[in-house]
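Lab notebook, bench 4. Still working through the backlog of constructs that have no structural model yet. Next entry is a single chain of 709 residues. Request: give me the structure tokens for it.
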Amino acid sequence: METMNSFDKPEYFENRELSWLKFDARVLNEGRDKTLPLLERLKFVSITSSNLDEFFMVRVASLKDMVHAKYKKKDIAGMNAKEQLAAINEDTRKLVELQYSTYNRSLVPQLRANGIVILDEHEALTKEQAKYVDNYFMEFVYPVLTPMAVDASRPFPLIRNKTLNIAALLEDKREEGKTEFATVQVPSVLPRYIKIPSASEEEKDTFILLEQIIERNLHQLFLDHNIICAYPYRVMRNADFSIDEDEAEDLLKEIESKLKLRQWGEVIRLEVEEKVDKKLLKILKESFQIGNEEVYKIPGPIDLTFLMKMYGLEGYDELRNPGYTPQPVPEIPKGSDIFEQIKKGDILMHHPYQTFEPVVEFIRQASVDPDVLAIKQTLYRVSGNSPIIASLAQAAENGKQVTVLVELKARFDEEHNIVWAKKLEKAGCHVIYGLVGLKTHSKIALVVRKEDDGIRRYVHLGTGNYNDSTAKLYTDTGMFTCSESYGEDATAVFNMLSGYSEPKTWNRLVVAPIWLRKKFLSLIRRETKHAREGKEAHIIAKMNSLCDKEIILALYEASAAGVKIELIVRGICCLRVGIPGVSENISVHSIVGNFLEHSRIFYFRNDGFEEYYMGSADWMPRNLDRRVEIMFPVEDEKLQKKVRHILDVQLADNIKAHILQPDGNYEKIDKRGKILVGSQQQFCDEAMAASEKKEEDEQERVFIPVQPV
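Model written out:
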């Protein structure tokens, strides 16, 4: 019999960071897919860039810190930090090269063929265009710019993280042969691309990039100098800060102070235009104290995230997929009393196919309902103008007990969450800033209501954040219940978060970091035992990332015992498939589509006594060991069928799914001769059909003639 130890070999695992780069390559693959509408492709190329930025600021930065600290420990794939950085460097350069060849050779020509022209720096402007551009510069750009010269009295300035800048070599007109260096930031307060007059009737819309306008007029900023050369550049800095929470008397103030340090972090990547002057590049490298491995020469516009805004260009609907409007949840009719609807039975929601509005309405109705005594909720990431925040503040002002856990350590949302925390405190809410050393990533809301038959607790549990904006873009599931056992557990969760109360047992919920890892391992091992005994054994698990070694070893043991394991993993997957005697019974699907796959769903066959779970945690060490996460069972048979349907349709996807191969690469399914299944489109169609059917049913009820007595 194989043991978990016999599966513990570095060659059985994929490096986490290289796996993530493969995910970003799958995103780029959508941008390269010529069957997609043109502006949709633009969007995916933009997402590739923003993903890569965050990857460098956090993951690459973390590895750099390890190298500086002489940390030699190897990862599960047998690579130390230095080896990982070298491999990342190689794979990233290939990815960026493919990204820009897609942009330059495919997207730009096709945009032009559709009347959308993005001028490059080599294209000459017509007289009309030149006049327009120069006037635009003097009126809108010039007043905002701050040219910064570098000399003995003026040190090299702080170049802020992710900002686009232009570096220039200047020659003093009064002192021939004397060259000087200067830099100017491309202002982010102005649009990155500017519409200008078109050169011909074929060009419907012509755009020039802001940095090109500045380069063209650089002489206006340095009147006593000749411009020898000028090139755009951008730096990426280490944005991963650590906090000693035990020493921090006020976590809110500590995080506020640390946020400012992000602009000063070590430079980990320098992007420069491909044909940059050698002398200019040398100055930049010395100033940022970096070597050639940190320099990326870009054959096109630096930072392609501006393409996301171009995606929304008016007048080109035929170049985009038709928009989708999230459909009503049939069990919660618009304008209904949400508590009465929940009392009828547990309600499952599938976003964004179904609207997130019931969740917003749940908190809104609770805030004004005179029978509601208390509202308790966790907030990890919320939208810019969150209606949920407004309702919580309103509830406190209405005299209800409101407890909100705001996770200040939600990366890149720290500043945002500080603002909301202060607003909620001002309104009279009891605000908790999470537990020391742990991020609170769970998604739970509890409403305590006084009713005729006593106190009743209503609970919402979800896989996604309480963010009404991202709920239109992320696929997530959520459940409403007023079952007493869930209510008791929800109360215990909030008592644990706000005080020192830790329940000995739970009715339904499974909470990390104490109980969840053990639960997952026991569920996987139970399937292994069933398979060895010849009983029915099957695991289906959907998540964002899979990189926990202990979980992977348990899956290998289950696979070797004959358990069929079907994984749907959007991003990182450190497990390898198709290893003889180890992972032959494991398949991995990754779906990249219009919506970001975000839900976490788990199915265990259990010899026919099927169990379904949903929750906030991925199979990652951080989720299982360093975060407060909640997993909850779905026990209602009707809801279980809906959950199974979600999993089955995703596993049948042969349009947007990429399948992990034994060599570690991902490939799309050969669709020839197959019925085409696109899971995201199918869920949209099903939600619309359900909504139409409900409308028809309601109309039939309205028009049924009353029979005389």
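Notes after review: The radius of gyration is 28 Å. Residues 131-299 form a domain with the polyphosphate kinase like fold (CATH 3.30.1840.10). Flag for follow-up if needed.
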